[in-house]
Amino acid sequence: MAMDTVVCKNCTLDSKTPGITINAKTGLCQFCEHYTPLSTEKKEEYKAQMDALFLSPPEHRGKYDVILALSGGVDSSYGLYRLKKEYPHLKVLAVQFDNGFISGTAFKNAKKFCDLTKSTYFRLVLDNNLLRDTFKKAAKSKDAYPGFAKYRASDMCNTCMSIIKQKLVEMAIHTKTPFIVFAFSPGQTEVPFVTLTRPFMTWIRRLFDGQLKRMGVEERDLYLMDQDIITASPPDTEVMIVHPFLVWGYDKQKFKEECIRLGWAEPDIKDPNSSNCLLNAYAIKNHFDKYHIHSYAYDLSALVRQGNLKKEEAQKTLSTPFSEAAMEDVHRKLNA
Amino acid sequence: MNAIGKDIVQFLKSRGFLDGKISIAEHESLTETGVIDSIGLLQLVDYLESTYKIEIPMEIITPENFDTLAGISQSVTNLKK
Q1: Cβ of B16 and A148 within 8 Å?
Q2: CATH number of B3-20+31-80
Q3: pLDDT interval class at B19 (50, 70, 90)
Q4: Nearest residue in chain A measured CA to CA from B21
Q5: What Rg value do the Cα atoms of chain A yield, rounded?
Q6: Domain range holding A192?
């Protein structure tokens, strides 16, 4: 670290990261300066809201109450288990997106947790060659996503997550499922409940289409929600996205211990940030090379700020080197 | 630009959304100029709801109402009435 690099007194963000400023007087980054912790009343309000939603889901004609994005990693595996523990009556369709880089162990974990929770498992598969080409384009692209998205995730992960969101919303409309659950950490999102109306769905579809276009992706319809499904749905169609870790709280270590106790197996991935996707480390390095931003820096700093993670642990994670061999493997696969 | 517009610019600056961009015109598209995407938009909605003590119905979150500083300011003003 350069001599003049200043680390925020509170979290892990530092002055050498583009866009991060540390106030010389307070020693805090701009995010810590503007941070207001969630009040107890607000937490209780969120809990009551989630209970109201999940204890008596709205009447619908579909087979499922919830579509849950299941990667097979710690967070989503624990999220599925906890959801069914808290609301056992919910009928859950757990969707695992096969992006071509999911570890074999993550597939086994996903199926194991579906069996354990009596949830329906669905493996979402798209054209692998086209996907690989899209990830390559995301890696080569610059500024396809807005400025702040660069802090949230790498260009490759933003692309992958946007595809998942688009396809899950499409599935929710198609199957008349009222809720989609994402096991995002409180560092990855700040809003626990998001209602998607038809006009908003059309807008986010158009935004992602523009981002894919900026990357040079031609076969974009494959990744976007089907506009005909949106248009054909009743005008009052709504899908609600729920991020339960903003309500339950977040302790990765405890989640992992609980998952292991339930039979979750740790994959052989040398990546401190992902327990399911082989692409992740490559994507972080690619992002850092392009923008000098570690794509987990903001997420982890937010967890530190909220008291969900110790600063030293976050710093250790951020400074852990990646396996060159693993990255070489991904590079070869992407360019095959 | 009215007070709400200035407040939104301040929010966008302080949370890193402007990414080196010095200013944004009132009628400039926030999404097409790469200032925010759908997730950023939701963060902004959350901020506006808590700051102005209003509830923003999802059905009014459309490009017509929420893609420019002018549109957002007008929507917030209408909801405050």
Answers
A1: yes
A2: 1.10.1200.10
A3: low
A4: A147
A5: 20
A6: 41-248
